[in-house]
Amino acid sequence: MSPRAIAFARGRGLGDIAEGTLPDGIPFDGRTFDLIAALDVLEHVGSDRAAVQALGARLRPGGLLIATVPAFRFLWSGHDAIHHHRRRYRRVELSALVREAGLEPLVLTYFNMLLFPPIAALRLLARLFGRAGGDDALPGRLLNRVLEAVFGLERHVVGRIPLPFGVSLLVIARRPDGA
Predict the structure, then answer these.
(1) Distances (CA, A) of 114 to 87, 121, 148, 150
(2) What are the residues whose beta carbons fall under 8 Å from the beta carbon of 138, sequence distance 6 or more?
(3) Nearby residues of 35 by Cβ (< 8 Å), 6 or more positions away
(4) Is the Cα dihedral 82, 86, 91, 97 positive or negative?
(5) CA distance 155 to 103
(6) What is the pLDDT along the chain (179 residues), one digit of tens a residue?
(7) To 5 degrees, how large is the angle CA 126–CA 162–CA 174?
């Protein structure tokens, strides 16, 4: 929704870039795709159900949808409000959402598990002490490197084994060949 972001992506030669909206304003004249990525998108739209159905309809048979969303309502904080989130998800809810759209979940896992305990503790303590504001301040360079390293550790297991909890959820869902 940002002309500046679209210009930036076009300038990097990232293929066809167009502004669109979910569920009814998807560009590209009804073309279908082998892969659609909706990374931290579904929590922003009015009807996530209609959005996933619209994305699924744009997949070729056998095509994949990769989506990430924030997890667990109890983690709701000012961060979500600042970023205009409408919801957070549990695994069962995300699974139902993609299945209702006729897609088959191949991978469905939480991620950002290692940072879950401190993030959950900070958000719950902030709520307890009436400080539900956003937590968007950029960390210092050293802390940012530590957080990046911790977050990066999960890349070795995400998609291979389902993680039992995390700050976010990942689904990779396939449109059946006969669909």
Answers:
(1) 22, 13, 11, 7
(2) 144
(3) 63, 64, 65, 66
(4) negative
(5) 24
(6) 788 988 998 999 888 888 889 999 999 888 999 999 999 999 999 999 999 999 999 999 999 999 999 999 999 988 899 999 999 999 999 999 999 999 999 999 999 999 999 999 988 888 888 776 566 677 789 988 988 888 889 988 888 899 999 999 999 999 998 76
(7) 110
CA angle 42, 44, 67 (to 5 degrees): 20
Angle separating helix axes 91-100 and 48-57, nearest 10 degrees: 50
Q: Report the C-alpha gap between 62 and 123 in whole angstroms.
A: 40
Q: Report the SS3 class of residue 28.
A: coil
3-state secondary structure labels for all residues of 49-97: HHHHHHHHHCEEEEEEEEEEEEECHHHCCHHHHHCCCCCCECHHHHHHH
